[in-house]
Specification:
The protein is an alpha/beta fold. The chain has 14 helices and 26 strands. The mean pLDDT is about 95.
Length: about 425
């Protein structure tokens, strides 16, 4: 007979955490807020020390990473988000650089043992399964290998399929909470975003299989695809911009070779409209990150188009996407997973798209990366590069040829300075 989880209060659940334990939090809209709040309460009582907290993006305040919890909690993340950026600069959140598809390996292969997993799930169905909802990613691996699994059951968490469904009996303790789950509302695309989106859309053909990253540029691209036909989706995440394209039968997945007709992802971030769209929707296939982000799985679909962004690129094509100088801003994520996967896909195209300047007018195309900046995508793997000033293909080009191409789509105000830097680097024979 299957085990029935104990139904307990948040205080009783959190009492299972001991000093020196490693605790994992499921992420995005499935952040187990009630357990995190109670854990902080216990931390304040002086009963805990040296507890290791592990997560990616949480849609809640990182109270546990403030000075009052020094010596009580040590926080580690695979991706620095809005709530942890300040704490990361202060050294209270430690960043683990790793490609997204490998994160689950840390738990499955014992590199990062977990004592207690805090997760949030949908209520059990009549077959005895709950759903991980918006956060399958590496959470499934943690559930399978943690010593103890404590779940918040929330009726507002959408019931998704695929690897999201786990046996209710795989949970040790349950806490009930019915608070609304957090939504993410993306800003409307700017005029620059729309211009970049247009350049990207020109590289997308009917029948292509898409992967898009996070932010206003992906939404701008999606808004320009309404006249396309039979697009597919295999991505690490998607948001609201996909919904109208599914409803208008622009995204059908007809030409995918694997998971034909399905919208494949491992985590989701969006509004309550997205949550309603994916709830009990058999079109949505939520998968383990070792599947969605494995370059060799990605490449099984033909004509994969991956579109990601960058913080900075040097004139040789080195892509920094996780830091501003030495300060970690985001994470490695799945950029390299999909660039490699799209490159291996028959007919595939890998694209990096970004505005030419920051909001403060500082060029993102630079002679050399800022000191301390991390290279997420090496120059050997870069293909199409896009700004609002155009698109270029860097693949197979020499360093000098790359410099000329990148300078041609930099902001006009910095092109002369970039050309001067290129001549200093490559010699007086360098000409624009």
């Amino acid at each position: 007979m299957a085990k029935t989880p104990a139904i307990v209060s948040a205080a009783e659940a959190v009492s299972n955490v001991k000093s020196g334990d490693s605790v994992y939090f499921s992420c995005f809209g499935c952040t187990p807020e009630i357990l995190i709040e109670e854990l902080c309460n216990v931390g304040r009582s002086g009963k805990l020390c040296n507890v290791k907290l592990i997560h990616t993006i949480l849609l809640t305040e990182a109270t546990y990473a403030t000075p009052e919890f020094d010596g009580i909690f040590e926080t580690y993340t695979f991706f620095v988000g809005d709530s942890t950026r300040k704490a990361a600069r202060e050294g209270r959140v430690q960043y683990i650089p790793i490609s997204l598809h490998e994160t689950q390996t840390l738990f499955r292969d014992g590199y990062m043992p977990i004592d207690v997993a805090f997760i949030a799930v949908s209520p059990p169905d009549r077959h005895g399964y709950v759903s991980l909802g918006l956060s399958v990613d590496m959470t499934l691996a943690v559930v399978q290998h943690a010593k103890r699994v404590i779940a918040v059951i929330n009726p507002n968490i959408p019931r998704t399929f695929g690897d999201a469904l786990i046996p209710y009996s795989s949970i040790d303790m349950v806490v009930h909470d019915d608070r609304p789950i957090k939504e993410v509302i993306y800003p409307a695309p700017s005029a620059i975003d729309k211009t970049i989106g247009l350049h990207c859309a020109e590289l997308i053909n009917d029948g292509d299989c898409l992967q898009l990253g996070i932010g206003s540029i992906p939404n701008a691209i999606l808004s320009l695809l309404e006249n396309h036909r039979d697009l597919g989706l295999h991505t690490e995440m998607f948001s609201d911009g996909v919904i109208p394209l599914v409803e208008k039968e622009v995204i059908t997945g007809r030409y995918k070779k694997i998971d034909q007709g399905k919208l494949v992802a491992c985590f989701l971030m969006g509004s309550h409209k997205l949550h309603a769209f994916i709830n009990d929707n058999p079109l949505v296939l939520m998968k383990d990150v070792r599947y969605t982000n494995d370059p060799f799985i990605i490449a099984q679909n033909p004509n994969v188009v991956s579109i990601n962004s960058a913080i900075e690129v040097d004139i040789t094509g080195q892509i920094c996407a996780d830091s501003i100088g030495q300060n970690i801003y985001s994470g490695v994520g799945g950029q390299l997973d999909f660039i490699y996967g799209a490159s291996r896909s028959p007919g595939g195209r890998a694209i990096i798209a970004m505005s030419s300047c920051t909001n403060k007018g500082v060029s993102k195309i630079v002679p050399t990366l800022t000191q301390g900046a991390g290279v997420v995508t090496p120059r050997s793997m870069i293909h199409h590069f896009i700004t609002e000033y155009g698109r270029v293909d860097l693949y197979g080009k020499s360093l000098q040829e790359r410099a000329k191409l990148l300078i041609s789509i930099a902001h006009p105000s910095v092109r002369e300075d970039l050309a001067k830097a290129a001549r200093e680097r490559f010699g007086d024979q360098f000409k624009i």
